[in-house]
Write a structure and sequence with these properties.
The chain is of the alpha/beta class and about 400 residues long. The chain has 15 helices and 14 strands. The chain has 2 domains: about 220 residues, Rossmann fold (3-Layer(aba) Sandwich), CATH 3.40.50; about 160 residues, Glycogen Phosphorylase B (Rossmann fold).
């Protein structure tokens, strides 16, 4: 049995991308270890769905660049020691390193000398991430340094994974060799995200006269929930019985509640707080429309949120910001686009969706069609083909054919 090590500077249990990859490897017959951060009150080591997880108690108290640097350095050094120690008994064929940071790929250098192949999975585009988060100019020394680290990191890796084609194109323009790059998108595992025929008992059932628009996820400024509330305030006079449900927690929750109150929407905008992931399908089943009012900037224009395929799988039409990465995969006939950062344009789409059931049906059907080439079973096959190529494990012919047909670089 071949062994693979996944490295991620995050809590493993709540990182859907790393969990999907690790569990796909276990199902394919690999032995999988994960090095990750320890959740508050979590265990040092444990096994979850066949994946062996070892953790570091570091915490995530980020805010400043100095704090980021401290956390990155501490995790880097721990990984640099732990991977080769475990190599003596596990003999990893592949170490799959998940960013951020990009330079974490250098931590398992000793494992590489011992025979392991290295994958760098770029969850984010680091220079743009920090430009967005801290308002740093593209020509600053900080961003130039991050771009350089990105360049040498992708060069050092044996294979590179990216999360969508627009990001891959950007990285190629900065020196990535496309022949060693594979796009594995953040698709949703439909087997885990099946919409229940009946809702959970804890999920409210709106009256038949209600028209519910819904968002689920983190409540931070980048996701534009304030824009959604402002748009709802503009549109609600033309939408009798409409409600906006916002599921999740985050730094903006109190501000969003205050904004809803200021606009006289406390009975129509519901901030429910954090909802267990297992209950999300039931909540979505009680809504008519999904909404993703993401802001646009140099980083977010490349965003492709997990919530989008969740809405599509749940059979809900989606009102979404017209962002580059999303627009690359879905046409104007599949999603109800509006101009980012524009409450008035979002309000128009809300009213259109409210008043046109046939348009909602058409959007839902077309989105399902356009989602087919990027669904999780194909993304899983792409990933397993890459691992099989690096480990000399023969991949099922049908699986390899599907992955190759969808554009895997082998």
């Amino acid at each position: 049995m071949k062994s693979v090590c996944q490295v991620v500077q995050n809590v493993y249990d709540i990182d859907p991308r790393v969990r999907r990859k690790a569990e796909a490897l276990v199902a394919a017959g690999y032995s999988v270890d994960v090095l990750a951060l320890r959740a508050e009150g979590g265990r040092k080591s444990y096994c979850l769905n066949g994946v062996n997880v070892r953790t570091l108690a570091l915490g995530k108290k980020r805010g400043s660049l100095v704090r980021y640097f401290f956390e990155y350095t501490a995790f880097f050094l721990w990984t640099m020691v732990r991977v080769p120690l475990q190599m003596f008994s596990r003999q990893y064929a592949v170490v799959d390193v998940n960013s951020l940071p990009d330079f974490l790929i250098f931590a398992p250098v000793i494992a590489r000398w011992m025979g392991a192949k290295l994958i760098l999975d770029l969850h984010e585009i680091t220079p743009e991430f920090y430009m967005s988060k801290y308002g740093i100019g593209g020509r600053s020394w900080t961003i130039r340094l991050m771009t350089y680290l990105e360049k040498i990191s992708v060069r050092f890796a044996d294979r590179v994974l990216t999360i969508n084609i627009p990001i891959e194109d950007l990285l190629v323009s900065r020196g990535l060799d496309r022949s060693k790059s594979t796009v594995v998108m953040n698709a949703v595992d439909e087997a885990r995200f099946a919409v229940s025929a009946t809702s959970s008992s804890v999920v409210p059932r709106p009256a038949s006269t209600k028209f519910v628009m819904i968002y689920h996820g983190t409540l931070t400024d980048i996701y534009g929930l304030d824009i959604a509330i402002e748009a709802f305030a503009l549109a609600q006079g033309e939408m009798p019985g409409a409600e906006l449900w916002i599921l999740g927690s985050g730094s903006e929750k109190d501000k969003l509640a205050a904004l809803a109150e200021a606009r006289g929407l406390t009975t129509k905008v519901r901030l429910t707080g954090q909802v267990p992931a297992t209950e999300i399908p039931a909540w979505l089943s009680q809504s008519e429309v999904g909404i993703l009012p993401i802001r646009r900037d140099v980083f977010l224009d490349f965003a492709f949120p997990n919530k989008l395929p969740e809405f599509i799988i749940a059979g809900k039409p989606v009102i979404v910001s017209r962002l580059k990465a999303i627009r690359h995969y879905f046409s104007e006939d599949a999603l109800a686009y509006f101009e980012p950062n524009d409450p008035a344009d979002l309000a128009r789409e809300m009213v259109r969706m409210y008043g046109d059931p046939q348009a909602r049906t058409r959007l839902t059907a077309r989105a399902r069609e356009e989602y087919v080439p990027i669904r999780w079973d194909l993304m899983r096959d792409r990933y397993l083909v890459v691992i099989g190529d690096l480990t000399d494990v023969k991949v099922n012919a049908a699986r390899q054919s599907r992955a190759s047909a969808e554009g895997v670089n082998l």
